[in-house]
Amino acid sequence: MGDMPDVAPSRKHTEVAVGILLDPQGRMLLTSRPAGKPYAGYWEFAGGKVETGETIEQALRRELHEELGITIAAAQAWRVTEHEYPHALVRLHWCKVTRWSGALEMREGQSMRWQTLPLDVFPVLPGAYPVLAWLAAEQGFIGFTHRLE
Ligand SMILES: Nc1nc2c([nH]c(=O)n2[C@H]2C[C@H](O)[C@@H](COP(=O)(O)OP(=O)(O)OP(=O)(O)O)O2)c(=O)[nH]1
């Protein structure tokens, strides 16, 4: 045990850093999951798995650079959620990102949409539903946040 990195509180979770990119008008960036990944074609917030030794912020910076070609300024951890999928039990570390440099490029062949509530993209990864509810509460938005069919 002495050599184990003191990062993940539980080994059974996959730690994921997720970025809620917000533009100056408060719109949120949603991207579609590329072919070949679980839930391909589902809409999500950009991000990905934390690698050994990385902080959440480092992982988010790496993922957003790899996926979107941007370099983010400081990201602040906002909420943490968990979701159980058939393929994995994930712990999602949600961060709001309002400042970045570089133009958005879809480096993995994804699609992107700037969205306001209610989202018009469909389907959305179920692991993102709770965060949509919190964003709605923050914005004073009442009603369904996303389509279910
Ligand atoms: N990026 C992202 N992942 C989410 C969201 N909601 C949600 O449940 N997840 C889950 C889906 C996946 O199980 C996990 C993210 O893993 P991933 O497979 O996309 O990560 P990755 O890009 O590092 O993948 P890879 O290198 O293994 O291909 O988190 C979300 O809004 N954004």
Task: Report helical residue fraction.
Answer: 10-25%
Topology as a string of helices (H) and strands (E)? EEEEHEEEEEH
Q: Report the biggest beta sheet as strand number plus sense, adding barrel if it closes.
A: 4 strands, mixed
Rg over alpha carbons: 15 Å
Number of helical elements: 2
Question: Any idea of the CATH class?
Answer: Alpha Beta
The gross shape turns out to be globular
* Average residue pLDDT: 93
Q: What would the CATH topology be?
A: Nucleoside Triphosphate Pyrophosphohydrolase
Task: Give the full name of the CATH homologous superfamily.
Answer: Nucleoside Triphosphate Pyrophosphohydrolase
End-to-end distance, in Å? 47 Å
Q: Could you tell me the number of beta strands?
A: 9
Lateral strand order in the biggest sheet: 4-1-7-6
- Overall CATH architecture: Alpha-Beta Complex
Number of domains: 1
Give the class from helix and strand content and strand pairing. alpha+beta
- Beta percentage is 25-35%
Which consecutive residue ranges, at least 5 long each, have pLDDT under 50? none
Small molecules (ligands, ions, cofactors) in the structure: 8-OXO-2'-deoxyguanosine-5'-triphosphate
